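Protein in question reproduced for absentees:

***
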Amino acid sequence: MSEIHGSCRDQFVALRNLLSDNLDSGADIGASVAVYIDGEPVVDIWGGHADEARTRPWERDTLTNVFSSTKPVTALCLLILADRGVVDLDAPVARYWPEFAAGGKADVEVRHLLGHTSGLPGWDEPMTVADVLDREKATDLLARQTPWWAPGTAAGYESITFGPLLGEVVRRTTGMTLTRFFAEEVAGPLGADCHIGAPEECDDRISNLIQSTPPRPRDPAASIAERVFFNPYVNPSDSHTVAWRRGELGGSNGHCNARSLALVQQVLACGGTVGGVRLLSEAGCRRALEVQADGTDLVMSLPLRWGMGWCIGSPLSGDLYGTRLDGRRVAFWGGSGGSWVANDLDARMTVAYVMNRHVQGAFDRRSIAFVNAAYDGLALGAGRPT
């Protein structure tokens, strides 16, 4: 059996065994898993290797790019600003970013950006990865663009635009980049080794994503999904570059491990306070669960119920988790390749999975298995939900 490092309470031993099995079978190359309950780590484990050649062990402080698992991190920043009265989530984006009113967007609200209902899931102009990393170019184009549908009437997953759109709201209201705001106002106070982008001092600890399945096939019908996912098409190898690491993509280039991602998201699961640090009120946390869209997402082509930046349950949840989430207040999302974070506001539990073996697909079963095992463990011990 592959050696697993870290700590794991007895009731959650299934997660340790699952990670070991994944490493033995090759389903994972290197990975970390964390479960926090009420601010305390009950699972903090890692194992495997940080490189495809399996010459570097995955260490306690290894980081990797988590793609769209960055979105819940950015959404948390917006909830914090709303709680402070800096941003009104029901206000027009143009109140803070006047240029955004162009193209018939004067009435688009901040919550439309968070709930993927803005009608701006992609760019009209041809884009490269370098263009997306150019904050000024990416946001200027979105500010001038006309929505692809009437904002607020339907959801379409803002795969890459989520970060530039909300990052600009943060910059216009605080004078700080999203990267800096998160580092100084969230990760810093919590002591979380989690970053939007990654500073130079982290480079030696980063495990590059390893592409293990064929790239997403192109859609010859030029669908909305095609326009979103292939303009530009981001490969795992794109995240290996220094430009990607230093960029600021609040929906795409977070760097962390499971421990740090779970710690940050515990703010939501624990009513706004973790380790004696209060970042949100309980009412501010509940805003994450306000339904923004409930139906088939125009980009994902899946039945999704979107809250303020998190998926908050839908028929899809039953397919992923069985009955484990029935009647529970949950907020979750994951990233391309397999990373995942799930918050249960009733159990005050957060589960995170971060790995380097990138598996193409909408929802990877590795992450779902860890979340389900965490719920099974929760039912075994003193943390049994009431």
Notes: DSSP finds 13 helices and 15 strands in the chain.
